[in-house]
Amino acid sequence: MAKESLTIIDNRTGKQYEIAIENGAIRAADLRQIKNGSDDFGLMSYDPAFTNTASCKSRITFIDGEKGILRYRGYPIEELAEHSNYLETAYLIVKGELPDRKHFEMWEHNIKVHTMVHENIKKFMEGFRYDAHPMGMLLGTVGALSTFYPDAANIHDLESRRLQTRRLIGKMPTLAAWAYRHTRGLPYIYPNNELSYTGNFLSMLFRMTESNYKPNPVLERALDVLFILHADHEQNCSTNAMRSVGSSQADPYSATAAAIAALYGPLHGGANEAVVRMLERIGSVKNVPEAVKKFKAGEGRLMGFGHRVYKNYDPRAKILKKMAYEVFEVTGANPLIEIAQELERIALQDDYFVSRKLYPNVDFYSGIIYQAMGFPTEMFPVLFAIPRTSGWLSQWAEMVRDPEQKIARPRQIFVGEKLRAWTPIEKRPVPVNREDAVDTSI
Ligand code: CMC
């Protein structure tokens, strides 16, 4: 049988090394024995943006980007989206197995008893400017929660980890809904635990003067499916931030705030907001060919297309494309869907997109659905953050328990100045071209 190892010959020294291959990977630290002399640090691998570096072993989410496969704990995303609900999926992600009825009911109860927040959190949120971006509010408020729960610092205590997990999953819809109400100048609505997780969220968002708010069941289910699809996605930018900040043993609220910050960016959770703005800018189906030409020329990106991992149709986008029409039955069609479909049709026939394996990702259709449901674009990344909280916490707990993990600390390749002697200000030579000498990028 072939050996599970890699033989490396260092052509600088002629020395040969054998490095073990485990799970299709070599340990980067094994390269350190390859030295070009006794004072050499040892060979490193250089991988900006971690495009080919596994930072952990994980049992939570499996993605085969070439085939367009996504599974949580072994269950295909399509089956979960069809049969499960978000809270059950969150249990699966956090605990590793689907719950039986008794455990589901306990889990649901344990989450719902944490939907309320301290009144000072309400005051804290009221302090934001009237036009504050709700994602910025969520980010700041989740960070602030760490000061309300100092017990969260006990990250090695199982009961504490469980409690913070329930608190965060329970409180996220409340904070998200209040951030929305704040931007609308509307009074904050307290949770109603008689409703489902997403039904209660809709109530805290949209309830006006009704004494008995009843969410539309189609929209409630659509939101639940959107939450299932966004619950986890292995080592993406925000999960990496969660793990990285958590690796310093910061409490989970601080680590979740860091994850929210990462999700805020337009290349990650902000992409669905960017998709809708892009579709609005394009304005009409007849302008699509011209827009595609511009994307190909590098004038902006076709937002909602392309993915670091998926080199095929994102399976979540497939589910959402179908679901959009079910939502439109209730809300009326969003005219942006026509532009999106035409963009997809043209892009998927165009060699630029085909050769680079750029397909619609989850954000391509989610924004159109959110908009039809009445959400302003600023709320889109917030709607991503709520369900992703279960994924972040599960990934964080996996990291905390992993004996191989340490504080995250990448190496660098230093390419700056060698040793220089400090000179007094009046003796410093004036560079011929100061613009070239100093860093003008910041
Ligand atoms: N439109 C036009 N060209 C693109 C796009 C796009 N959306 N995405 C990638 N490319 C091109 C890129 O210019 C490059 O071309 P070339 O090889 O000629 O230089 C090539 O495709 C590879 O792109 P890359 O930037 O090296 O790929 P990446 O893996 O670093 O980036 C991505 C992945 C998602 C950041 C990128 O595809 C992108 O910016 N997409 C638009 C933003 C978006 O939809 N983000 C949501 C991601 S899914 C949700 C989530 O996980 O957060």
Describe this structure in words.
The protein is mainly alpha-helical. It has 2 domains: 1-45, no CATH class; 61-404, Citrate Synthase, domain 1 (Orthogonal Bundle). Helix content is 49%, strand content 5%. Helix 7 (197-206) crosses helix 8 and helix 11 packs across helix 16 (362-372). The longest helix is centred in the middle third of the chain and has 27 residues, at 158-184. It is globular and about 80 Å long. It starts with a strand and ends in a 5-residue tail after the last helix. The protein binds carboxymethyl coenzyme *A. Residues 233, 236, 267-269, 271, 295, 301-308, 356, 358, 361-363 line the site of carboxymethyl coenzyme *A.
Supply the key terms.
2 domains, mainly alpha, two-stranded antiparallel ribbon, single chain, 3-stranded antiparallel β-sheet, 49% helix, binds carboxymethyl coenzyme *A, Citrate Synthase, domain 1
How does the SSE layout of this entry go?
Blueprint: E1 5-10, E2 15-20, E3 61-64, E4 69-72, E5 75-76, H1 77-83, H2 86-95, H3 101-112, H4 119-126, H5 134-148, H6 158-184, H7 197-206, H8 217-229, H9 237-246, H10 252-264, H11 271-282, H12 288-296, H13 315-331, H14 336-347, H15 351-355, H16 362-372, H17 380-401, H18 434-437
Antiparallel strand pairs: 1-2, 3-4, 4-5
The structure holds carboxymethyl coenzyme *A.
Structural class: mainly alpha
Low-confidence stretches: none
Radius of gyration: 25 Å
Number of domains: 2
CATH class of the largest domain: Mainly Alpha
What's the arrangement of strands in the largest beta sheet? Answer: 3-4-5
Query: In the CATH classification, which architecture of the largest domain applies?
Result: Orthogonal Bundle
Task: Determine the CATH superfamily of the largest domain.
Answer: Citrate Synthase, domain 1
Q: From the 3D structure, determine the CATH topology of the largest domain.
A: Citrate Synthase, domain 1
First CA to last CA: what distance? 56 Å
